[in-house]
Prior knowledge:
43% of the residues lie in helices and 16% in strands. The protein is an alpha+beta fold and 136 residues long.
Amino acid sequence: MKFLCERCDIQMTLNGVDDGGPESVAVRFVCPECDSRIAMITNPMETQMVKSIGVKIGGRDDKLAPMEMIKESIQENARAKDTLLGVKWEESAEKRLLNVPEMARPMARKAIENHAKKMGYETITLEVMDEAKNNL
Length: 136
């Protein structure tokens, strides 16, 4: 979501984020040209959704692909969850998992992790992936 200054017709920049607790988040923007300001406050449902998927509100210099920030946050949360469950993925295994069609990837990840847990493996390697595939 982007905000444009009506006076200058340029994109406003992030000026601050305030966490209003479980009920709301306030995001402030300012026009870099004329110093016009605007604020947005999320409702409880929006706040819960944004916080549950771990989206970080803020700017960065490089351009994002559509929905990239949300996708990255979800992937980071999935990796953190794997570590909490005691299953770690080697980088080569993570890369191979990207060959699985995106809509089937979560199911494949879960099947491989379940196989690894069942076999007592702490790390998912390419060999563990092959073993899981052969057992399915």
